[in-house]
Design a protein that fits this description.
The complex is a heterodimer of chains A (302) and B (198). With 302 residues, chain A is an alpha+beta fold. Helices cover 18% and strands 49% of the residues of chain A. In chain A, the strands form three sheets. Chain A has a ten-stranded antiparallel barrel. Chain A has a two-stranded antiparallel sheet with strand order 2-3. A two-stranded antiparallel ribbon of chain A has the order 4-5. Chain B is built from two helices and eleven strands; from the N terminus they run αβββββββββαββ. Classes of the chains: A alpha+beta (302), B alpha+beta (198). Chains A and B meet through helix 2, strand 5, strand 6, strand 13 and strand 14 of A and helix 1, strand 1, strand 4, helix 2 and strand 11 of B.
Chain lengths: 302, 198
Amino acid sequence: MKERLQYVFVRGGVALFTLALLATGIRAESNFEKIIRQQNAENAKGYVQPIADIFGANMNAGFSRNAKLPASGFNFRLDIIGMAALVGSDQETYMATDPWGRKFQTATILGKKGGASPNPIDPANPALEYRGSDGIINTSIFPFAAPQVTIGHIYGTEAIIRYVPIPEISSANLPKITLFGAGVRHSLSQYFDAIPLDMAGGFMYNSFTVGEFITIKGWAIAAHASKELSILVLYGGIQYEKSTLTLTYKSTGGEDVNIDLEGSNVVRATLGAGLNLGILKIFADANFGALTSFTAGIGFGF
Amino acid sequence: MVSKRLVNLCRPRIETLSVGLAAVLLSLSTIGSSCVNENAHVSVNLSPIVGRYKLGTNPTFFGTITVKLDSIVARDYKNKIRQGRIYDLKVRVEGEYGGEVAGIAAVQAGNGDPKQILRFPRTGSVNWSVYRQPQSLLGNSIYLLPQPEGINELLSALLAKPLPDITFSVVGTLSIAPVPDNLYVVVEVYLQADAEIN
């Protein structure tokens, strides 16, 4: 832990915020990996599916805080964005399969105690059960964070970049972690003078890699609208998105397992508000889709 | 002009909103540090123990194998096993034989006494060919009867430090002599253990 903190401070504020929010995921990663390796592909899918849903929803969040894009001129902004998805009780269990093919309910990674498949020959005997592993993360809200740089504008268009490279730190048991995102937004309201709202459309791609074990990729197409009322900005949007979590590992049974899990969030509606306080921007929004998630952030720029 | 009035009207609310947003950010940054489940266990599937016993020419048979329990527990989980389970026991035979068979499998931890872990079949004897298809506890086979003494012996051994050597043995009878060559009885033990992961 000491080495981890030292490293975080050396890397500076962006990494600090990101790592602080990712601490759960990183601490749990080695445990996560241990548990996953005990499972065949089918059970690993059920165990990990909530992570695919949540990371997908979080990663595709925070795309927009304002649809007002200048037609031209140099603008730069750095945002530190925190995302958090709510964990539902339905994400705490799944139906696993025992070695004989019978279904039993057990904990996902976000669940509590693992469930058991009783042995049919002596169902009351716990010494003959087949059990699923316990959940390793107990939380009702799952956070994520990303630094985001926005640079514009040419013809009402801006570019968005997210990037956090963290090399492997073996002394702190941290695998190499890379967050990368890139997107573009274009002003739509410049074509429609009569509309009293600012409007923009955009596309964003994100990827998040933890070691060679887990990769999450996602993309989103969104339409954004906003209204500035002096320093207050009200904004919202509709977004179509996809995300895929890929797990690659060798199970203890010797099986090479490669799993793709689709995130459950496909369409989201966003409602939010922000404050433009000179170079300081603060914003927060709620996202409604298959998962409910929240985004809050602080930005510096002009 | 209208917007200035609106700002003046909204200013207290805006200040409240600012504080609220900052609070959200702060609380987000602290989430995660305390939400890893304490005492979480991983269910570890241990390497199966397979005893393949060659039968002799007599209608009675006996065979043993010795297994170092240490060798079936992965290094990550040594000294972290908190509970064990036997989720399956399987019996199958190899070779052609027209008579019946009956047997008992036993387990012996270290220098302790052998304890019965399984009878096959439950009572009496059954045709050898019944076991040409593997019979399994998980498959709810009517030709197997688990024995609590041996099960407890093996599960207790899993918790011992250091892990002891285990002797598995099979003893049984065949109904018809002469007994052909190359007959085998195979007993498989499938273990699962709860290991600490934190």
